[in-house]
Design a protein that fits this description.
2 copies of one chain form a homodimer. By secondary structure, the first copy, chain A, is of the alpha/beta class. The longest helix of chain A is centred in the C-terminal third of the chain and has 23 residues.
Chain lengths: 291, 291
């Protein structure tokens, strides 16, 4: 009898990554596929997942024939409830030995704490927190750029555009930062309006380095904008502690950068991630296998 | 020789209104047409304008033959500079005796102060301020929902959604208001995310009455959200005074409602509008006629 294998999937909104591991947790192969947010459609998500799976199998020198004895643990963006998890399992295009799925934040948290209880706070273009206590996961924040994702590069960039217009109109401080933002977006309000029209969170996020640079140079407004995003992250960290997280990992492109603007006690509750989101997926797969 | 006539146009993003007046300023007829924001295209804008003009002419018992001796003053949404004004004049589908155009905020300000210097502050779904001093106009704020329009129903509604999610996540006060907002948008974060996806400023604005109701009942969070928007409007009023506005009209569906949340001195600088935006258009038309 073949010993079972385990696939860990980290399926996000831009790409999907797969890791194939054996029962001892050793990596046999990895692969990458397209976006696997289930809001794009289950067929789109599964196509991306299988693209990443096939690449991982190829790297391991294996074919799809092993999948019937392989457990798969899927962390997928866009999953919101148990009904979504059932739809994911029910629409698999091949037969696995077992399937478990959860949000990509859940598997990221699982991987970061190697299956133990803990919390993660991800801050990049967007932001979101996740906690697992007694095995039960809960998402905090991360409900999108428009009304959530506080403590993120996109929020910082949007605040900078707002401040630039207020400075231009004489209703707020007009500093080196606001002048730099106005210049970057075309120099006058109509140009800014034209830039804002099609702008996505990623576009606002491109302004975050400009704000950070000016904050480091002592621009008083830039300092305020950076500190506000750092404060938002501290708010998330307080909440994770309140909910019982024994340790918290601060992740993403912006999170660790903002640590310089957080109070000293924060460093004391942070730990380095023990593994990535694919490792969390592998742990979920092992749970599907009865581990 | 026929005595000249004057057409005042108020062309906004949802509809266009026209008023035909004689040299004494008496209204001869009015009409309505479609959206005349020039960002929709000059042909679309002019179609809407001519629809409103034809209706005004019909009400006056006149035909298009009078237009060659009629001056037209256009207040159009989407005009940002002199190049836009030239493009509007250059694309008129019929011959007028003369054409002048400016933003719809400019003609609203002109009408509100009957051609005298002054400022206006419009707060409804969006917000924008306009000042005319020594005949020269300047727009303040109103650069759009995403990064401007502070002190508006849409901003208030968006803040309420943000507060509702923070309350739900345990990162902010969870009051009668936040519970009412969560309930109105489906009860849980995934439903809120689904609501936010296609939401336009007008959708956020529909939540403003809920916030105002709760503020009047003493909900501490609702009070804060309402006061913040009122403070934003006061910031605009201070700026209009600083720029030399001898009097200010507070207009729109929300502006006068928020007066209750502003400091008492504000009432002392406000005046009732003397005329509407079409009246401002007629004044612009008279200027085109050398008045």
């Amino acid at each position: 009898m073949t010993s079972p294998l385990f696939l860990g999937i980290d399926g996000g909104g831009t790409r999907c990554r797969a890791r194939l591991a054996d029962a001892g947790g050793r990596t046999l192969g990895e692969g990458v596929g397209g976006a696997a947010n289930i809001r794009l459609g289950l067929d789109v998500a599964w196509n991306a997942i299988m693209e990443a799976v096939d690449a991982a199998l190829a790297q391991a020198g294996l074919g799809r024939e092993v999948l019937s004895t392989t457990y798969i643990g899927l962390g997928l963006a866009g999953i919101t409830n148990e009904a979504d998890q059932k739809r994911v399992a029910g629409s698999a295009p091949v037969t696995f030995a077992g399937i478990l799925s959860d949000t990509d934040a859940y598997t990221a948290c699982l991987g970061a704490h190697a299956g133990a209880d803990g919390g993660i706070l991800i801050s990049g273009t967007g932001s979101a927190a996740q906690i697992i206590v007694n095995g039960v996961g809960r998402g905090i924040g991360g409900w999108g750029f428009e009304v959530s994702d506080l403590g993120s590069g996109a929020s910082m960039g949007r605040d900078a555009v707002r401040a630039a217009l207020l400075g231009h109109d004489g209703m707020g401080p007009h500093t080196d930062l606001t002048r730099a933002v106005m210049a970057a977006l075309g120099g006058d309000p109509p140009s800014v309006v034209a830039w804002v029209g099609p702008a996505r969170p990623g576009d606002y996020g491109t302004l975050a380095p400009l704000v950070l640079d000016h904050a480091r140079k002592g621009d008083v407004l830039a300092e305020r904008l950076v500190r506000e995003q750092a404060d938002h992250l501290v708010m998330h960290i307080r909440r994770l502690l309140e909910l019982g997280a024994p340790a918290i990992c601060l992740m993403g492109g912006l999170g660790p950068v903002l640590l310089d603007w957080m109070p000293p006690w924060v460093r004391g509750v942070l730990t380095a991630p023990k593994g990535d989101a694919m490792a969390g997926g592998v742990l979920l797969a092992m749970r599907a296998g009865g581990a």
